[in-house]
Amino acid sequence: MTIYFKNAYINNSSVVAGPFLIDGPLKGKFDEEYNDFYDGEKTFEDCEIKELKKSISYIIRKEKDKNIDLLLSSDLNNQIFISNMVAEKVGIPYLGLYNACASYCEELIIGSSLLYNKDIKRIICTTSGHNMTSERTYRNPVEYGAPKPKYSTFTVSAATSTLISNEKSEVRIECGTIGKVTDLGVMDSNDMGSAMVPAAARTLFEHLNDTGRNEKYYDLILTGDLGEYGKQIFKEYCFTEYGYSLDNYNDSATLIYNKDDKRVLAGGSGPSCLPSYFLIDILPKMRNKKIKKVLLLATGALLSVTSSNQKKSIPCICHAVSLEVVWYIYIHLFFLV
Questions:
Q1: CATH class of 9-165
Q2: Of the ranges 80-84, 85-89, 130-134, 178-182, which one carries the lowest mean pLDDT score?
Q3: Is the model's pTM score more than 0.90?
Q4: Buried b / exposed e across 217-231, counting CB within 10 Å, b at 16+?
């Protein structure tokens, strides 16, 4: 299902970044950086709460109009505990969402839809991730020192916030495709790239079919966190199943860390992986008109600690969001000059 939007724009953003991420290609570009997994707090969870609250504070600080109508937030902790705690602290009307690492695009789609309501004008969409809290939730506590296979990914420790509204800006949220849950039987919780590939390919096909576009319509097609191995599988799968030649494709997980850092294995993952890379690297390029059309494909593995322990397969989801540069703004500025 693809939904088109007429009055949804990205107005502002912030990213607070943690260990490993701050030593990667985006180093020095974040609103704030912290260099250990506690950042002065007693627990990893308290650290994640602290960073998400900071991210929201940064984006409000950047705005002249401090009024926010709604907060949409997601994280990977049980019952999105981090988002719940932060929502209480910031005091903004709140909807907690969960689609694992696909949550960012889910938030943009839901938020853009809600902007059609005249009473909702400004929405903050947030995601948070923390490597240690995610490992404890979905695999093993890091204190166990359990070895991981090379195809495993390394959850990005970051908190991101995106302000969307009906106030016109350089980048418009043009449409969004709501994905379908797909499960081809992968049971290895370390191999989420392979598990998520079919969902990503299915959503890409349905998006292009719904819109009547081909894969070359976009300057960039960017998946969320398939990792080095999942990225290659995705390209081969799309070519074999749909005939797509994805020369304009990349995956955030393979771009966000230093490639020579063996500790991050196959790359990044987590709900903050895609928005961290998009907001810091791609959004500025869109604002400068270096990239004009981008398709975000946020991928999520919908497993739980219970399903993993019971050896169940991993259902996955992918949502797509189409972003376009607003040309009339540049035409207007040209004539003003």
A1: alpha beta
A2: 130-134
A3: yes
A4: ebbbbbbbbbbbbbb
Residues 6+ apart with CB under 8 A from 187: 311, 312, 313, 314
Note the pLDDT tens digit of each residue in 207-254. 999 999 999 999 999 999 999 999 999 999 999 999 999 999 999 999
| Dihedrals phi, psi of 220, to nearest 5 degrees | -150, 130
Q: Three-state SS across 135-151?
A: HHHHCCCHHHCCCCCCC
DSSP-derived letter for residue 281 is I
Asked if residue 71 lies in contact with residue 27, where contact means CB atoms within 8 angstroms, the answer is no
Q: What is the mean pLDDT of the chain?
A: 92
Share of the chain above pLDDT 70, in %: 94
CATH of 171-336, one of 3.90.1300.10, 1.20.1250.20, 3.30.450.20, 3.40.47.40: 3.40.47.40
User: Is the CB of residue 55 less than 8 Å from the CB of residue 14?
Assistant: yes
How far is Cα of residue 210 from the mean position of the Cα atoms in its chain? 23
- What whole-number distance in Å separates Cα of residue 326 and Cα of residue 106? 22
Q: How far apart are CA 55 and CA 74, in angstroms?
A: 13
